[in-house]
Design a protein that fits this description.
By secondary structure, this protein is mainly alpha-helical. It is built from 13 helices and three strands.
C-alpha cells in the first residue's frame, strides 16, 4: 500500500460515488497531502497509510497548530477530510481499524454567521442600474440568492430549464449534485423575467453556454468569483459596511425565515442541509432580545 495509489483511488471515489466538484476533491486531496508532508519529516520513516498510528495523528494536529499556525476550525476540517480517506480504506477492506477514531478534533466555538437586515438588502438592490444588462442581471442574482437561499455555485449553475415559475419553484443541484426543489418568490421571478426578456434573449451566447440562466456580457456563464466581486461592489455602493459574500444572503434567507417562525425542517429542506444540526445555527437570538426578555420576565430584573 502506498499514498499515491490510495489517494488516486480516494479522489475517484469522491468524484464518481459522492459526486463532489473538482474543487471539493482538490480540498480533500490537500488534506491528505498535509498529513504526508508531516510524516515525511522523518526521512528514515516509511509510513504507509495502513501504518499511521493514533499517536502520530495527535502529533500531526499539534504540528498543524504550532508549525503551520492553522486555526482550530481548519484543523478540524482537515481531520474530517482525513477521516473520510480512512473510512474509504475500511469500506474497501484495506484496513480493519480507523486510526483516526480515537483522535479528538480541536474544540471550536460555533461562529454565528453575518446576517443582513431587510433594509441592508433593499439598499444593495437599489444600487443597481437596471437600464443596463449587468444591472438588471445583478439585481436578479441578489434577489434570487436571498429569495431561495442558494449557494453561489448553485446560482451560477442554474439553467433556463431549472425555472418552473408556473409552479413557483426552481430545481437546484447542490453538493454532490443532489437535486432539490426550492420555492422562488414573485419578486425574484419578475426580476429574472425582466433580465431574460430585456437583455438575455438578445445576447450572442457562446456555444456550450446556451443553457445557463445568468451570463456575462460576452455570453459566457458566470464564475463564482464574478458574483463575489459584484456583491461586494454593490454593498460598498449601498454603504453597507459588513464584510459579506454571496453566502451572507443565504444566511440572511435562513435567519429571516427562522426569526419569522418558519419550521426548521422546512428550512433544512430548502437549504439542502443533510443534518438538522447545521440548520439549527439559525435559531440564534439577538442579544438585545434576550436582554429585554430577561428584564421583562425575571422578577429580580424588573426594577433594574
Amino acid at each position: 500500500m502506498n499514498w499515491d495509489d490510495e489517494l488516486e483511488e480516494f479522489k475517484t471515489y469522491l468524484k464518481l460515488e459522492r459526486g463532489l466538484t473538482p474543487n471539493s476533491v482538490k480540498a480533500y486531496a490537500n488534506d491528505i497531502s498535509k498529513l504526508i508532508e508531516f510524516l515525511n519529516q522523518d526521512e528514515n520513516a516509511d509510513v504507509t497509510p495502513d501504518k499511521v498510528t493514533p499517536s502520530q495523528f495527535r502529533s500531526f494536529i499539534n504540528w498543524l497548530a504550532q508549525e503551520k499556525s492553522i486555526s482550530a476550525r481548519t484543523q478540524a476540517r482537515i481531520l474530517s477530510g482525513i477521516r473520510s480517506f480512512y473510512k474509504n480504506l475500511i469500506l474497501n477492506e484495506k484496513i480493519d481499524e480507523d486510526p483516526t477514531e480515537t483522535v479528538q478534533a480541536p474544540k471550536i466555538g460555533r461562529k454565528l454567521p453575518t446576517v443582513l437586515s431587510v433594509d441592508e438588502i433593499d439598499a444593495i438592490e437599489a444600487a443597481f442600474d437596471t437600464s443596463k444588462m449587468d444591472g438588471a442581471r445583478n439585481l436578479a442574482i441578489v434577489e434570487t440568492l436571498y429569495s431561495c437561499g442558494l449557494r453561489v455555485s448553485e446560482l451560477t449553475g442554474l439553467k433556463m430549464s431549472d425555472l418552473h415559475f408556473d409552479q413557483g419553484y426552481v430545481t437546484v443541484f447542490g453538493k454532490g449534485q443532489k437535486e432539490r426543489l426550492v420555492p422562488i418568490g414573485k419578486k425574484a421571478q419578475s426580476l429574472i423575467q425582466d433580465y431574460v426578456t430585456s437583455f438575455r434573449n438578445d445576447m450572442t451566447i457562446q456555444p456550450g453556454h446556451e443553457a445557463f440562466l445568468f451570463l456575462n456580457k460576452n455570453g459566457h456563464s458566470l464564475s463564482r468569483v464574478m458574483v463575489f466581486k459584484m456583491l461586494k461592489d454593490a454593498a460598498t455602493a449601498a454603504g453597507v459596511t459588513k464584510v459579506i459574500s454571496p453566502h451572507t444572503l443565504r444566511h440572511s434567507f435562513a435567519t429571516h425565515l427562522v426569526d419569522g417562525g418558519a419550521n426548521l425542517r422546512a428550512v433544512q429542506e430548502m437549504l439542502g442541509h443533510e443534518s438538522i444540526m447545521t440548520t439549527e445555527i439559525y435559531t440564534h437570538l439577538d442579544n438585545n432580545y434576550l436582554k429585554s426578555t430577561l428584564v421583562e420576565h425575571h422578577p429580580y430584573k424588573k426594577n433594574d
